[in-house]
Amino acid sequence: MLQGTLDLLILKTLAVGAAHGHSIAYAIERQSDDVLQVEHGSLYPALHRLEDRGWIASFWGTSENNRRARYYRLTTTGRQQLAAQTSRWDEIVRAVNRILKPA
Amino acid sequence: MSLTRFFRRSRWDDERARELESYLAIETEENIARGMAPAAARDAARRKLGNATLVREEIYQMNTLTLVDSVWRDLKYGARLLRLNPAFAVVAILSLALGIGANTAIFQLLDAVRIRTLPVKSPEELLEIRIADPVGGRTGQFSGRRPSLTNPLWEQIRDRQQVLSSVFAWSGVGFDLTTSGEARTAQGLWVSGDFFSGLGVPALIGRTLTSADDRRACDAPPAVLGYGFWQRDYGGDPSVIGRSITLDGHPFGIVGVTPASFFGVEVGRAFDVAVPLCAEPISRGAQTVLDRKAVWFLGAMGRLKPGVTLEQARAQLTSISAPVFQATLPEYRAEDAKHYLDFKIGAYQAGTGISQLRRQYESPLWLLLATTGLVLLIACANLANLMLARATAREREIAVRLAIGASRGRIVRQLLAESLLIAAAGAAAGAILAQWLSQFLVDFLRTENNRIFVALSLDWRIFAFTAALAVLTCLVVGLAPALRATGTAPASAMKSASRGSTDPHERFGVRRVLVVAQVALSLVLVVGAGLFVRSLRNLLTLDAGFRQDGILILNMDLRRAGIPDERRPASFAEITSRLAALPGVSSAAQAFIIPVSGSGWNNNIVIDGKKYPDNVNINEVSAGYFRTMGTPLLAGRDFAERDMPGAEKVVIVTQLFAQKFFPGQNPIGRAFQIDEPPGQPRPLCRIIGVVKDTKYTDLREAFIPLAYFASSQALKPDPFLQVVLRSKAPLTTITPAATAALGQINSGIIVQFQTLPSLVRDSLVRERLMATLSGFFGALAAVIATIGLYGVMSYMVARRRNEIGIRIALGADRRTVVRMVMREASMLLIAGVALGTALAIAAARTAATLLFGLHPADPATIATAVAGLGIVALLASYLPALRAARLEPIEALREE
Predict the structure, then answer these.
(1) pTM reported for the whole predicted model
(2) Which residues of A touch B20 (CB under 8 A)?
């Protein structure tokens, strides 16, 4: 996975609603048709980093199977960041495409 | 990254562990739901998560201030090392505590007498008012502890100056609290009305004095008590306000008490009671000096007006000088009058107060600070040596860590942590020790006659000083070993540590240098101690011209005895003979000036109309004085009955007087006059005897020509009498007997006792202080340096066990081995002594003014110090040498 894209994908996943680490990873994998595999070794540090920046917040909740799990939700700054990062991503994709597939 | 998160990082870590746990549980459940067996499901979940510890570590790192964390670890590690070796830790901490404690104590004293400002409002605005560098000196009578101005001068300055928002004057005086029997003195102050308001000192209870209290001819003046006196004499009772206190036999109404922090304007003294200056005639009666133009007894200060600079103030005071001195000119001889009219009023910054203590002890204290600084340095060098040995023992471990990639800075930091701990513990213990030491020093300086008071409070300067010492010691002790231990290439360190048969010479260099430095510095201190001890001995054994043992001095105040002026000479004679008749007393005599008491009286003399420029000292004594004091009469006769007021004025002179003014002639029968001011009688004084030279104001001064007049010829003496007694009876029986006898003669006599030996001893407090402390520190330094030399020699022998073993196995004589080790030690010692002698000679020059009767580079003192230190040090290195010689070669070789 590209450097920095994991943060963006986490933010996007959380835009729908709060989720715990496992379901975030699952959602990313499922929505990308298993093309993107989330390494858990980088998921949790990424969550911590995002929380440290104040883009997401965490709380303990109960999962669908009645298990205690740590949930993450998007903060207001996180929502703004998601918008900014998404447009930045679009720019990069367009730029890379212009190079790879010149018209 | 917030600091709170840093301190709560272990809680965070737990949180993560639980989160990962819950991840595993969820994933396992899903795997089971997909049809896996529970064990396989859990394994698969684990595989998917990967290394959980690594994840946690990564997050932990994100929460960590790496530097703080590793420093904390280093300190914990250092503490563990110290606990492992408690003997080393105790010796190290104790030696530093002693060094840092001594430094702090002396700095505390310096801070109190030199650096700290007065505890009053805006002390930096205070200026002392006195005559600016009087050319030709001032003439007249001087009394009090700061005789800067006369009262007429003070009043002129007070009324004419415009640059100071307030001016005030004071004079220190001893007030008698009793009305008969043995005296009890309070430290008194006569102060002008604005004294307390000018300083900005409020009353703790009641009120202070105001200018309304200080009006000439005041008849019921108030008194303000100092805090310490209030606590001591009144138990801090607030109802003291409104009560009355008897000073010199006169009642004063107590109106207030000043705060605990305020001791007056003189650093080194605390006032007990302050009364308005207008009360001076109440104590002194007809002898009042308020209108005397040549009696200097007042100190004065002022507070600069806002917006006025020091230069402007000085300029204004200079400009009013001419009219001020014109208006107050005393009846002087022409040349003195000329000097007087040339005087200028000066203003000097006085935020730190004024102090006799400072003048007397500032340079000794700086010198002692340098001494204790050297002691600390020697202790540090010693510790550095020990640390070096420890670092060498860990050489291999450090080499391994460097080899597997530890950074050098990281390891240096870890090694420094240990010395930082030692230094911090030493500083803490030293700070506590310092409180005892500084109090000991103050008690040492306090004598019966000089009740000094030093406010030994702790302030930020002392803490900063102690902390700076701790950091410095830490660096000195730890840095060299740390750099050295990490400086060698890992490969060579590992190789050489495996077999210690030979030792790279360079490895020993630092330790040798440290020992040489220790020997050199301790020699400086030992030489210094020798100089001060010999100075004191010179002073104690010199021939002062009198025999002090068995002399008791009685100081009598007869102001309330009701004896009329013209009856005084007769009643003085009667008192003296009654005292001489007491059991155990062999003789008694009156003396106006007691030798070595610090007081003096001098004047010029005129012989056959020719005036001599050098002053001669004067005393006034009764018949029997020379016998009592044990001063031999060399020619002529003592005073006798026939030397009455009406008869020819007679005088006994000292040898030096005779040699100087009548060289090669018989002085008996010759005459001279005292150069009295115009208007005063100038009787011809006939020399009737010659006595041996004696010291006058001070033991340290050279002999000065001295003339004794007969007290029997004094016309109207003041109502004070001093008598010297020679007695074999112990003090405890003679003082009650004398008090009782005086009470029988007149119940209004107040008497104070002192022995001449204690007076002499008190006059040498500074010399005793220097001798005692420098002796102690010199011995301490010598011991530390000897231990240092012993340590290095033992270490050297231990490192060279193999080599020495081989030498002995190959047939080396044991004596040869001893010689080899001793040669090594001697070389270090000789280098240290040579360097130390040079340093000592240079250093002693700074102490020259504090020495007596010997040259700063006194060869005998230096030789004794070198010999003493050398013998002790050689003995200390003989032990390791002996151990080397007794080495069993087989064991030494097998051990490796």
Answers:
(1) 0.77
(2) 44
